[in-house]
Specification:
The chain has about 500 residues and is of the alpha+beta class. It is built from 16 helices and twelve strands. Strands 2, 6, 7, 8, 9 and 10 form a six-stranded antiparallel sheet that branches. A two-stranded antiparallel sheet has the order 1-3. Strands 4-5 form a two-stranded antiparallel ribbon. Strand 9 and strand 10 form a beta hairpin. Helix 3 crosses helix 14, helix 7 packs antiparallel against helix 8 and helix 14 runs antiparallel to helix 15.
Length: about 500
């Protein structure tokens, strides 16, 4: 084989109950749809002599590269608040892990690669649409500076899968610093397998939190604190960008602090704190405004799983975990205020800033204004003498029911904000334009790319990918990628594809 991947497979050295060894199921006619060469270079993959057909064979699971140790990972999790004791990789197979050119360990996983012992009644396959959505969304998040899993390749399988109807199939190759989840720890805690729990914790410390002394009595408590810190910061980034994950089950929260499992996710357009896109979130559990609290709820489930590894007796362990979870709320609030202040051109957080942010978000909600477009336009009017008309055009094109009142409130807010900037930051516009994207993967554009690809036209996907991976560039020729959907274009429901 002319493709070489430098696998070293640290995860496969964990106790056998952590996974099931299984091979991908070959597909009939693999066709390479996308291949992320810069990421492949970072991973140290030698593909220079490989043909497209060879790449398609490897990333469809038809050919197993040398050094790979394919396995399906075991985990469980709370799904919409209800514990499912047996989940695991039902349609994904970890080819192996490696150290990239920066010395960081990474997983390479095939998603949609066939049945595993964890598939239950599933077919182990993925439709093309959700695979394409994940490719676009995770690469967009990477470009926006959000910790995320990555897309290495996408292969059309030449087969069909049955979901709501007959859909073309695909295999998506996902890269992550690891695929270890809150639910991975829950799996072993539920089975009272403390040996596996301890081995997994040591693996995570060495892999993701090497600053922790693994031999210390409170090593796992320190690990829990570090995980909470990363999640607090991650969800603050989501909130600042108007991102809604859509399915924040405990099996969809990584221990590394990366965003994972881009199923029914979406970026908000008209600002609405209660916004839900996921077709399966009928009660709004994972609405935009609920994400910080759900993150804390998930981390409480992680604390329950880790309690046997905390120092002291059970009462002390519970008290320590409770204190860390309380700190999470403060950490998230600080991270969110810092992110939002940068969106407003302010480098630090001072008294009164939180009230200013909340007042603006209330105006955006009342005005039903496009979240991303508003902040991008705001970046052009940091000076008091700037023309405000382009910003107020967003209000005129919204579904606002009380334009006059919102108009007045926004003018007043802008004057106060511009005065604050004059005192605190003379270069606010530059900071804001480097913080507030011009382009995000808007739902209707993602859907357009999916529908075209399902008909064999991959050009809209490639164009959209190009735009969202250069999100801070504002180009008059690309207005269709910068503007919210017209009423007839709106996509208000997103789907998992499982």
């Amino acid at each position: 084989m002319s493709l070489s991947i430098p696998f070293s497979n640290a995860y496969a050295q964990l106790p056998e109950q952590c996974f099931a060894r299984v091979l991908p199921t070959p597909v009939k006619n693999p066709l390479l749809f996308a291949f992320n060469q810069p990421l492949a270079d970072q991973l140290g993959i030698n593909y220079s002599a490989a043909t497209e057909q060879e790449l398609a064979g490897v990333f469809a699971g038809n050919e197993i590269p040398a050094g790979a140790l394919p396995l399906a990972m075991a985990y469980c999790g709370h799904q919409f608040g209800q514990l499912n004791p047996q989940l695991g990789d039902g349609r994904a197979i970890l080819l192996g892990d490696l150290e990239d050119t920066n010395g960081q360990r990474c997983d390479i996983q095939l998603k949609g690669s066939g049945r595993t012992p964890f598939s239950r009644s599933g077919d182990g396959r993925s439709p093309l649409g959700p695979a394409l959505r994940e490719y676009i969304l995770c690469e967009a998040m990477q470009a926006l500076g959000v910790p995320t899993t990555r897309a290495l390749a996408l292969v059309a399988s030449g087969e069909y899968v049955i979901r709501d109807g007959r859909e073309p199939g695909a295999v998506f190759t996902r890269v992550a610093s690891s695929h270890i989840r809150v639910g991975t720890f829950q799996f072993f805690a539920l089975r009272r397998d403390h040996d596996a729990l301890q081995a997994l914790a040591q693996h995570v410390i060495a892999r993701h939190y090497p600053h922790i002394d693994a031999s210390a009595d409170d090593a796992v408590l320190q690990l829990f604190k570090a995980i909470c810190q990363r999640q607090a910061e991650l969800i603050a980034q989501w909130m600042s960008l108007g991102f809604i994950h859509g399915v924040m089950n405990t099996d969809n929260m990584t221990i590394s602090g990366e965003t994972i499992d881009y199923g029914p996710c979406a970026f908000m357009e008209a600002f609405n704190p209660a916004m839900v896109f996921s077709s399966i979130d009928r009660q709004g559990r994972y609405a935009y405004q609920n994400q910080p609290a759900i993150g804390q709820w998930n981390l409480a489930r992680l604390a329950e799983a880790l309690l046997p590894l905390f120092p002291g007796d059970e009462q002390q362990a519970v008290e320590d975990a409770t204190a860390v979870l309380h700190d999470y709320s403060d950490q998230h609030q600080r991270a969110w205020e810092q992110r939002m202040n940068r969106k407003l051109g302010l480098n630090d957080v001072q008294p009164g800033d939180r009230e200013r942010i909340e007042a603006l978000l209330n105006i955006l909600e009342q005005g039903r204004m496009d979240y991303t477009g508003f902040f991008r336009q705001l970046s052009h009017i940091s000076r008091a003498d700037a023309e405000r008309a382009p910003l107020f055009a967003l209000l005129q094109h919204s579904d606002c029911r009380n334009t006059a009142a919102v108009n007045e409130a926004l003018h007043e807010w802008l004057s106060e904000w511009q005065a604050e900037l004059a005192q605190r930051n003379n270069h606010a516009g530059e900071l804001m334009q480097a913080t507030n994207p011009a382009v995000i993967p808007r739902n209707h554009k993602v859907q357009e790319a999916i529908m075209a690809a399902e008909e064999g036209d991959f050009a809209p996907f490639q164009t959209l990918l190009e735009k969202v991976t250069d999100p801070f560039v504002e180009n008059a020729e690309d207005l269709s990628y910068q503007c919210p959907a017209e009423p007839h274009e709106k996509v208000l429901r997103t789907f998992c594809g499982t």
